[in-house]
Amino acid sequence: MNILYDERIDGALPDTDKDVLIKHLHQHIPGLDLLWREEELKAYECDGLSAYRTTPMLVALPRRLDQVQQLLQICHAQQVPVVARGAGTGLSGGALPLEKGLLLVMARFNNILHIDPAARTARVQPGVRNLAISQAAAPFGLYYAPDPSSQIACSIGGNVAENAGGVHCLKYGLTVHNLLKLEVLTIEGEHLTLGSDALDSPGFDLLALFTGSEGLLGIITEVTVKLLPKPQVAKVLLASFDSVEKAGRAVADIIAVGVIPAGLEMMDNLAICAAEDFIHAGYPMDAEAILLCELDGVEADVHDDCQRVREVMQQAGASDVRLARDEAERVRFWAGRKNAFPAIGRLSPDYYCMDGTIPRRELPGVLRDITRLAAEHGLRVANVFHAGDGNMHPLILFDANQPGELQRAESLGGQILELCVKVGGSITGEHGVGREKINQMCAQFNSDELTLFHSLKSAFDPQGLLNPGKNIPTLHRCAEFGAMHIHAGQLPFPELERF
Amino acid sequence: MNILYDERIDGALPDTDKDVLIKHLHQHIPGLDLLWREEELKAYECDGLSAYRTTPMLVALPRRLDQVQQLLQICHAQQVPVVARGAGTGLSGGALPLEKGLLLVMARFNNILHIDPAARTARVQPGVRNLAISQAAAPFGLYYAPDPSSQIACSIGGNVAENAGGVHCLKYGLTVHNLLKLEVLTIEGEHLTLGSDALDSPGFDLLALFTGSEGLLGIITEVTVKLLPKPQVAKVLLASFDSVEKAGRAVADIIAVGVIPAGLEMMDNLAICAAEDFIHAGYPMDAEAILLCELDGVEADVHDDCQRVREVMQQAGASDVRLARDEAERVRFWAGRKNAFPAIGRLSPDYYCMDGTIPRRELPGVLRDITRLAAEHGLRVANVFHAGDGNMHPLILFDANQPGELQRAESLGGQILELCVKVGGSITGEHGVGREKINQMCAQFNSDELTLFHSLKSAFDPQGLLNPGKNIPTLHRCAEFGAMHIHAGQLPFPELERF
């Protein structure tokens, strides 16, 4: 979307003689698969955020650890930027390649190394798919809890890089809460172990620092995750409301009575209708909002919780509350939610999926403000989100072929994220910052905080060779962004003036 | 204990003209309470690790944020090292003062700023006591989960600095898992907000990096913690075993069947007898080991779990399993455990409390090795620990007045911690590294990893003014430690040779 930015980042990078680099890599790393022809590179020009595209200079597909290590050493010596990529399902452009950089694809590291049922851990390579871990753990009655919608395809290395979430993070936490240990390589090819197999690790918490660092600090080569016992029972309640505010209130009330649902999701009318047309999940198309609330645990406990949640929903003004009759209906209720994004994709030539978080109490007010902002921009917005977490996913519908619509969608998206920051939330819940939200980082953090981020980055990667131009904006960039906003008369926060 | 080390750290620091500094602080920070007379300083010469003592140059007791900010700016300008202190209950000497440094006591920042029952959060000043948070939250049916044994006295700022744990961390996590947001000041007096009120925060995870950083990165000025709903019911099972190995196996088996106890604690015979003599908790003095297992949640769930845990304990060879009849007996069972340290203190003039973690499966083997090492050193060791977490607290009994016993106790302690590292664990579970375990950090981390820690420290505090000589050893120190060990013929890990 933001072509200007791509050009500038790449423009600032040193030129590399591509042929010399290829020769060098072939010579020193026998058996390393490299792609460099235009038609081969095409498949790697974007990740899940397809609006941003760049053709990489070179793609490497190593199979062995020593290949990755040597490749990093060579790129470090020759000052070639390296962008890591897992399955390429990320939604913020974190794996967007660089014209003057090497794209390091870790997809072939796809072995499950060890499942330890007693310790309840799985040690896996970074290219292993999220769902494959749960499948491998299933014979032991265990599973890996974080479940992004892309879990069938996304890789655990990418999950760590983006600190991925999912429907069940309300109860079970984000990726960072389900990790024990990482093996990583620095840009210089040094091997580091972060975390340990035990409860805690002394020194600074590098495991948490690395999680969600979006490929800026090093390359993940092995991941040890925690596994959880599969709950005995899971039940889903579907509640219908005649206003999104009432549904928002019900969310706060459910949490307030002390129930912790496994998942608590909200959809508004546009999302409900799109999903129902597409999946026939059994959603009430006349409802202004629905809540899906999953409760899991032992039988008696789940039964009690269902009763309590039903009462709270009714008191909050639900016009109807249905318990999924059986497992088939439960799966159907979730299928509607999990396919909501493609369903909305059928309504509009393009859509732009946002990912902001807000304190739960701000839900009704923020939903109202989004409706107002959407009307001002002349665009439709569908809301589908992890309501229990306060993790919103407004989907902005637009048509890139209509002059000005793309710009209006970008402007609306930016304003929604800044609204999240204003009420005490953040510009990303689970999709990461990547390339997409680099401007909004200037609204989220002040210049002292950004300077600190750059110092930390330098501790791992002094030359800035790992994934430059993602996650952490330069102060210069924030100054430009701030100035732009003032110029357009839309400055959201007076603090921006200081840049 | 290690006087040599204190001298060296202080020796390397620049001399400050104390009178000039006092005058400067008084002049620029009206109303700031300063202590500088020998007799006033006495109370601050150690924290909970009383074997290490140093008289600070100066103690400051600010009441307001602007005083802390100005004090830091002055110390930064004059290159005076600053050691922060909360309630001074830490067990690893993290708040041990420096002869040439200022001790910054944050105890007067003891206001609870806001309890938000809907968001289930508490915003407090750093000097607020751990238990005071739960007391303030109680009217809303909420509490703060991490519960170090010192919870009646220790402050939340210190809990964050050491990433404190407690009996209930098995189910509810360490301090880092129960935090939302920190307000901190850097050594330059810059204000930073780490984390947010919402689910996740973009950029690097500075909240986790800061937690457990032991005062090396900045001064905590405000803490927002998560609160949890109080469980409906809590029950405790007390199981007796005729060997510690059987008790160790029961721990692994309980976790393996998928129950997550609120607490799962083990005590060996020496600890059982000491506690029983002191508290009359009703423990079986003929047992080689006991397990205390607390289960909490809703009534029906807890009832089912008690049944399952009882069966697992019996199958693992428990000779007796008793359910606390009523709340009074439950409290008595815990009182024995919570007072085990002072109880053991009655057996011996001195004791040295270790704090290592190991993977749960290694419990039986490590307990055997500790018994062997203790015999080799001619010392007694009592074991009291968070078994479910694999977080061990071997207590080494000794008499500092007997020539050589202190050195033997230190040597045994070091070897136990190195044993923890060898089986894949770590040298601290919840007490921190501080001054006490700085040598063992050389066994835990390699020189690349330590270099990285120093780079991260520099990003926050380039001059190294905050709590120098704690947590992260210099490479030079590790070289000396390694050499020392080779000389004594006790080199535990060949990797140490590389220093």
UniProtKB/TrEMBL annotation, chains A, B:
Keywords: FAD, Flavoprotein, Oxidoreductase. Its cofactor is FAD. InterPro entries: FAD-bd_oxidored_4_C, FAD-bd_PCMH, FAD-bd_PCMH-like_sf, FAD-bd_PCMH_sub1, FAD-bd_PCMH_sub2, FAD-linked_Oxase-like_C, FAD-linked_OxidoTrans_Type4, GlcD. Signal peptide: none annotated. It holds the Pfam family FAD-oxidase_C. Its EC number is 1.1.99.14. GO terms for molecular function: glycolate dehydrogenase activity. PROSITE patterns: FAD_PCMH. The keyword Flavoprotein applies. It comes from the Bacteria. Residues 52-230 form the FAD-binding PCMH-type domain. NCBIfam families: glcD, PRK11230.1. This is Glycolate oxidase subunit GlcD. It comes from Pseudomonas fungipugnans. The lineage of its organism: Bacteria, Pseudomonadati, Pseudomonadota, Gammaproteobacteria, Pseudomonadales.
